[in-house]
Write a structure and sequence with these properties.
binds xanthosine-5'-monophosphate; single chain; Rossmann fold; 3 domains
């Protein structure tokens, strides 16, 4: 079975929601890919989709050099759905009038369906709550379209071509706030485009296992295991495909979460019987970081040391031909966008796990067509612990950027314990999944406290918890006072090296999520 045989192409006009459209289509069990709006005509034809979605975008169709519609989209004779900017482009192309506006309509709107439409067939109600985010709108509908929805301020909130399966929606069906968004996209993808539901976890695993076997044959693969979700899922998947031909190197940096090194070995080596070499490099890291207080230099030291240790291990192993990496689809999209200069936001985080360049190994990236939510589903299905797979993100440099200034063994051990208490209580109080990222930070300043009759002069721990969707902006989590009180008391009572606990009430921006 070719699970990519039924597929949708998404042309990206720069909307912050483009990846969300793709994730929604995948959730409908249909494969899709995102191409830039000005992708090569030949590439679009070669992809051979069963339907095309034109995303929204920040531009105005009137602007000089505004992104345009490649006519090949219309020549391919497949259904088209234009979302927001996509709908405006289609209207402009067919002779309608798009009105520029300084004012943005942003937020909920009530849309009233006007008459019959293929697109809204699955929507039972006459009116729906939708999410709007646009400045421009269609003022005069192109004559080939008829209107299928309006709001009180937007006469053409959706349209349908009179003869062809071409649709436009001014609102965003991909956003959670559009209550019927899934039904609308489902109707387009399954019924209008006729895509089959082939993109399912079990099929994805079977196909990837076959692909890995075909590619690797009887050669050996090396993988740097970090304890994070992506590399763990790569390990589980590769192990299913090639068993003991996979060799994992796990570097314990001494900057991991509480007892994480032992847990990785228990899950991967003991329970799943994966070939894992553990390198206890804690002291090497503390030595390398000694006296270094600058956050960026710390990140660099941690990243480079990882590569050195990993390379040394690799050279000691015989006949390895492949290097596996946990690259996922958003990384691919981001690096494609940054290489063409189209990225709106480029992250420059330096990660542990960078690619050693002179190992002269062939590269295999088995997750490179998957989104994070798909990687997680695969992980659970492959037998990884759901609690681990759905963990909050943890930065590559680990506790190294959560100990302010110089890193020391004593600080790292104290921080790991405090962090563990915080996370354990969040889980116990059913708050873990309500926060997007929560952790403790070590402040190397001493403050006075009294414990029993004794005076204590020890360090400060900060608790940090945020709620966010994209990690680009974040709100500090309004955790209950009683809960913070309990965590604070446990940390001070159970960890001698801490005399004071504080809670971080800064949002991003202006603060960042991490402290360094
Ligand atoms: P900031 O602190 O920039 O963090 O608001 C946003 C997200 O990125 C993570 N982060 C990192 N991840 N290497 C990583 O792999 C890093 O150096 C790094 N710094 C921050 C952070 O945990 C949050 O999820």
């Amino acid at each position: 079975m070719n699970i990519k045989s039924s597929k949708i192409l998404i042309l990206d006009y720069g909307s912050q929601y483009t990846q969300l459209i793709a994730r929604r289509v995948r959730e409908l069990d249909v494969y899709c890919e995102i191409y830039a709006w000005d992708a090569d005509t030949a590439a679009i034809q070669a992809f051979d989709p069963q339907g095309i979605i034109l995303s929204g975008g920040p531009e105005s169709v009137h602007m000089e050099n505004a992104p345009t519609l490649n006519e090949v989209v219309l020549q391919m004779n497949v259904p088209i759905l234009g979302v927001c900017y996509g709908m405006q482009l289609l209207n402009q192309y067919y002779g309608g009038v798009v009105e520029g506006s300084e004012e943005k309509e942003f937020g909920y709107a009530e849309v009233h369906c006007t008459g019959e439409s293929q697109l809204f067939k699955n929507v039972a109600k006459q009116s729906m709550d939708v999410w709007m985010s646009h400045g421009d709108k269609v003022k005069e509908l192109a004559s080939v379209f008829h209107p299928i929805a309006h709001t009180s301020s937007t006469p053409y909130a959706a349209c349908e071509h009179k003869d062809l399966p071409i649709f436009g929606v001014q609102f965003h069906p991909e956003v959670e706030h559009t209550a019927d968004g899934r039904e609308i996209l489902g109707q387009f993808v399954h019924h209008i485009c006729g895509c089959e539901k082939l993109w399912k976890t079990d099929n994805i695993i079977d196909t990837h296992v076959d692909n890995i076997r075909n590619l690797v044959g009887d050669e050996k693969v090396l993988l740097g295991l970090s304890g994070g979700v992506d590399s763990s899922v790569v390990a589980a998947l590769m192990h299913k495909a090639i068993g003991k031909q996979l060799v994992c190197v796990f570097v314990d940096t001494g900057l991991l979460r509480y007892q994480e090194g032992d847990q990785v070995m228990q899950t991967m080596a003991d329970k799943m019987d994966i070939n894992v070499i553990r390198v206890n490099a804690q002291q090497m890291y503390y030595d390398a970081l000694q006296g270094e207080a600058d956050p960026e230099r710390k990140r660099k030291i941690i990243g480079e040391l990882f590569i050195r240790i990993f390379e040394k291990q690799a050279k000691e192993l015989d006949d390895i031909q492949w290097l596996a990496q946990g690259t996922i689809y958003p990384d691919v999209i981001e690096s494609a966008a940054s290489s063409t200069g189209k990225a709106h936001v480029i992250k420059s985080h330096h990660n542990v796990g960078g690619l050693p360049e002179d190992l002269s190994l062939k590269l295999i990236e088995p997750l490179k067509d998957l989104f994070k939510d798909e990687v997680r589903k695969l992980g659970v299905s492959l037998g990884l612990d759901p609690e681990m797979v759905y963990r909050h993100p943890f930065p590559g440099p680990g506790l190294g950027v959560r100990i302010l200034g110089e890193v020391k063994k004593e600080y790292a051990e104290t921080l790991a314990k405090a962090d563990h208490i915080f996370i354990e209580e969040l889980r116990r109080h059913d708050l873990y999944d309500k926060t997007s990222q929560a952790f403790a930070v070590f402040l190397p300043v001493k403050s006075v406290g009294v414990v029993g009759d004794a005076r204590r002069y020890e360090y400060v721990i900060t608790l940090r918890a945020v709620e966010t969707i994209d990690f680009m902006t974040a709100r500090w989590a309004h955790l209950p006072y009683e809960f913070i009180d309990l965590v604070s008391r446990r940390i001070i009572n159970e960890i001698d090296k801490v005399s004071r606990v504080v809670y971080d009430v800064s949002s991003k921006p202006p603060a960042t999520i991490e402290w360094e």
